[in-house]
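Look over this record as teaching material.
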Amino acid sequence: MPADRFLHTPLQLDRLPEPIFHQVRQMPANTVYLPHQHQWGEFVFSFSGVLEMKAEGLEFRVPPNFGLWHPPGCEHHGGNTHASLHCSLYIDAALAHERGMPDRTCALLINPMLQAILNHLRHHPPQSPYTVQESKLLDVVLDQLVASPATGSYLPNSSDGTLIKVLNYLKDDPANSQPLSAIAEYFGTTERTLARKARRDLGMPLSEWRQRLKVMRSIVLLQEGMSVESVALDLGYSTASAFIAMFRRLLNTTPDEYRKQQSTL
């Protein structure tokens, strides 16, 4: 393993000290999470950057405003290219099952109230043994997680031979503005066939997938200090306003607001 990689050691306990156990971690760039699993469930929320994990044969890239749930016993691994700050909530297996947490790895859409609670816990992390008030607050978090919409991977992949070539082609150049008809012709298929495969494998139109790809790329560029105007041009937008509208629609915040949030972490 290259010397500039940081190897993260997963939580190693015989049992959780609390039914809902909270931890905050600040990880350096190029952190690697080796394959591991827990007898409890794990919810991960990134305050800064994009979560990149693999589990159940799938690839998960989860941006801010989303979190990632790993059910008990699910092996997962991944890493982060850029420095990140995130929290993990480890939830007792019986409690997770009783309250109705998903039985598969998935992204969860986090509402503003839950984001605010998680941010409060980041600044005031409870220390075990938890007080009654801390335990009640974490129980509210679990209630909100149970009610959160599950979305699978934010940027899903495909095992279809043609579609995966198209997705990789777009990943190589997120600014690509070719119409779907031209891309389909390039790969020897039809626009209608690509649209059908995207709906089947991605659960969304390919146009939506392309916008999500752009927003994931934009997060990296904003973290690197690029201006909003430069990011917009880099991603193929003719105006910054069009990029801002897309960013707001997908992440419920503007690029400038997102950058300000990152500067306070």
Remarks:
- The longest strand covers residues 20-27.
- The CA atoms of residues 165 and 236 lie 21 Å apart.
- The chain is about 40% helix and 25% strand.
- The chain has two domains: 6-152, 161-263.
